[in-house]
Amino acid sequence: MNESDPLLPGDAAPMEIPASARRLLRVVYIMGVVLVLLFLTLIAAIIWKSNRKATPAAIAAPQTLNLGLPQGSEIRSASLDGDRLVVTTATQVIVVDIRKNTILSRLQVAP
Question: Which residues touch 74 (CB under 8 Å, ≥6 apart)?
């Protein structure tokens, strides 16, 4: 370091900051304040969500679907694959869409 270094205390005049650097410094301060505000907002949102009680969803009444089976018929098996239910009796195979609560197909099986 030499004696003309502007960072040394003493008789040397303080270093003048150029206008572009002052603007950049101002932008950095503003971004810092925005960052702190966003962080505080995030913390407040987490606290608000954790303290808020969710209202329970109303439970829908179970739906019934008449398969149209004759009196006294016996269901031998039922199999579920996704939203399809396959019901097997002694004489029929019935495919039911459980989301739409409809019968998709009915196959007659020879005894």
Answer: 89, 90
For 24, which DSSP code? H
pLDDT at 13 over 70: no
Q: Tell me the backbone φ, ψ of residue 23, rounded to 5 degrees.
A: -65, -45
Q: What is the pLDDT of residues 45-95, one digit of tens each?
A: 999 999 988 777 788 778 888 888 888 888 899 999 989 999 999 888 999
d(CA 78, CA 87): 4
- Of 97, 65, 92, 93, nearest in space to 80 by CA: 97
**Residue 6 DSSP class:** T
Instruction: Decide if 96 contacts 81 (C-beta within 8 A).
Output: no
103 strand-pairing partners: 96
Q: What's the pTM?
A: 0.46
Per-residue DSSP letters for 43-108? HHHHHHHHHPPPPPPPPPPPP-----PPTT--EEEEEEETTEEEEEESSEEEEEETTTTEEEEEEE
